[in-house]
Protein: 3-methylitaconate isomerase
Organism: Variovorax gossypii
Amino acid sequence: MKEQINVPVTLMRGGTSKAVFLSQQDVPADAEARLRFLLALFGSPDVRQIDGLGGADILTSKCAIIGPPSRPDADIDYTFVQIGIDQPTASFEIVCGNISSATGVYALQEKLVPVQEPVTTVRVHNTNTGKILRMAVQCADGEPRVEGDSEVDGVPGTGAEVALDYSDTSGSTTGKLLPTGQARDWVHVSKLGREIPVSVVDVGTACVFIRAADLGITGTQLPGQLGPEIYEMAEEVRRWAVERCSLPSSGILTPYQILISEAQDYRTIAGDRVVQSSEIDFVARMVLNGGAMHKAFPGGGSVCLSVAAQIAGTIPAEARGTHAGPARIRIGHPSGVLKIFANVEHAGENEWTVREVHFTRTARRLFDGTAYVRRARLELPAEEGTSVRAGTAVRSP
């Protein structure tokens, strides 16, 4: 028996992230076997992921599983998996907005959807949330376009625009746009010895928004510049939100923890640009338990933030100085500026309706080939402590 198995893989960049794309037929259906397969493929757990395809960064330790549609209003099924780096985990909790932008391009290149010029709309059923995402992909000569004038801060150069429609994603994680029933709650933070205001909003991906100033920081800090106590306090708020919103305690990512501060000048992570306060509506940083910060900004989180900024009483609306809309919300993140158009209507006391949410990314196929997975890692019992992290809405492939 051969000691390695061959697996067809495609590496795609979507926005500011990269992911290994797999066909659903090549992924084990059994949850435990699937976990061992994904960990072996990515080389996890290992801080360098040196024996697999993982990029040793939260933005590149991602997987997209693509299969035939399981509902009539979709063209493909898309399951997103965040692979743990130094931990043996595979999380199905969220939809990655950046990687979502590559799913339409992939579907067209794989002939899963016929190409229509100049734009093909691909209806993507995200199985993590049960929602339909719509991707408008620029096409020419029977293929998705690569070159164009669309810019994404955090990605060198320009590319062909992929327009994403997240308008039908309210309540993706919790079933409600405002999971707690109100725009603002108060949470006791142990290290501060007092309560601070937070906002929990759920569209695209559930997020809990925290004022950076309440944690004693300006909010303009970059990856590697926050002390461990900031991450600990943010994680305490996230755990409160998990309990308050009746989310699975096994989750490690949701709700996203977003630090918000008023618009102010700051230098980007590349060091070659100063974002001016006049360019943005506020500054935002996504932090994760364990001491990591997103080097740009998550697509799903940007959808949620753009909507939250148009709901009166939320932390983002306060930092913006208004909840007026519809508007193109300008998010200042570590790599630059991200603009998201949203249209949110007031529908009554603590009731809001999302009419539209759109943003653009660029996406490109980077590599096609064969990965080699060590059979021994598939056949041995799962390592102690391994787990598949999944939210209640997950529909595994």
Notes: The chain has two domains: 4-171+362-377, 185-349. Residues 382-397 have pLDDT under 50 and may be disordered. The longest strand covers residues 336-348. The first helix runs from residue 31 to 42.
